TrEMBL record:
Top-level taxonomic group: Eukaryota
Domain (Rit1 N-terminal): residue spans on this chain: 30-325
Protein name: Initiator tRNA phosphoribosyl transferase family protein
PANTHER family in the record: TRNA A64-2'-O-RIBOSYLPHOSPHATE TRANSFERASE (PTHR31811:SF0)
Species assigned in the record: Hordeum vulgare subsp. vulgare
Amino acid sequence: MAAAAAAAAAAAEHAAEEGTLSIYKAARRIKRRESTLYNALRSVADDAAFVAEIAALWPALPLVANLRCGLWYAQPRSLAATCYFKSTDGHAGNWGFSTARLNLHLALLAGERGGCIIVDSTRKGKRFPDSMAKTIPIWCCVLNRAIQRHRLQAINQGSGLKSEMSAVASNGDAEEYSGSSNWDSSVHLPVWVLETEKNAIEGRIEEWTDLFESCGADIHSLALGLRKPLRPLWISQNTRIWLNEVPDHQLWDFTPIILISASASGTVATQRTSSEFSWRYIPGAGDDEESWARGLTPTLFWKHSYDLLDGGPDLCNQLVADIVEKDRVYRAQRGEHSPQVIVKHAKCSSHGLEPYTGDHTIITQPMNSNPSTIAPANTQYSNGGHVVFWIGTSNLAVASTMQVADGLADMDCILNCDSTSRLPSSSSEDSYLELPIVGSKDERFSLLKNLPKAVSFAKKNLIAGRKMLLCCQNGEDISICVALAIITRLFSDTGCFDCGESFMRRDITKLEMRKRLVFICKYAINARPSRGNLRQVYGFLCNEKEQLPC
């Protein structure tokens, strides 16, 4: 009796608490219940169908995914490349042009193919994410302005730039290279951007162009590769396109950067019905994949999309768990990095299941089916299709430990910066070094503490003329920063190994570091170094400079 009375009292207390549930908490519970894994995947598939329809209108233009959300909205075989434009560079009052995310490979690809199509999405109820509304238009304008300056300077100096352009162009296109008088370098923003914001952005274009020119980017190659100025165009699910009047992109007097916002604009989920299942549509479902994907990647999703969608909401979670685990075991058997994905069990409440939370490891797979369309000449593909980026003629290469397990034959030595995996190696200590470096969010000075060993190891092997591989878990951040430290510390301004002699003679500034980062990004087009790790590289170089004898 006492136990029953206690249970009744607890139930009454719980009911009282539920009765005072705030509107905010109630809305959060409803949103969480609607944001199921099946709803997210079904929403992604619906939006991807829209993207495919738009891409089919201009089949000659390559489809590009803006990382990371854009990867979900196109099948891997249809993607020609990826790019990285952040919405934070387009937030009101915080506009910027990032020299760490130049995306020059995208401009060259657009110049080669006559334009490109970029896909992205957003959860925030906007029609377009800020990366498309402002970041990419700013990028287009800055590149156009820099090319215009470069051409005018070449004309004034009487250099051979015009003859080079005519040689690159076909006879019919040679006129497009003739001069800068018709070169549009103005800012093109969508009509919904306020006039005050547009004026503020226009007022900073010259400043950003100066920054772009000072960072050491190869503007000459851009001037040769782009026949017409870049210009963004916006397409969403609200855009009306008459199929019998689709314009030919070759007839435009600009190089189109067509921006597709994959999701329907809306702030709340809407109910939709297929032939078998009812589900809730989630705008921008591909965003923030760590919070919902349970270890599923875009590549795995599209490989098993029919099974996942046809299985329905009840079987979706279990199917995803099976797919992720089978992929992990497959990669582990091949010696690749394969951490186990852990998902905490959902908690029950009187309102139903609370959402799961868990730790997820997102694994980026090589996306392009035709590597030659996007990769620079220094990119090497192993037998397994894994990507290794050689940094010019420096004998340094960067890659992901997840991708190089079967592609190490051409490497003389390896610097493994991945704290979670060990590469298969029978080499001696002189040719293999493992440094357990973690990101700046996990440990503030992890990279800084390990850079002296990394540079010393690189110096010893580069003196011996060995080819060296730098790798980290994703090949985009830590390995790039280690390469930046090595190239700044041991290489000259022209990219030649000089054992650090030029480092002794020059001052270390953020501008100098930025130039070398641009040099690396020219070859390692997937580079995405974090700000915290770049700060540690700068701190290391300053310490090295202070320790040099006067």
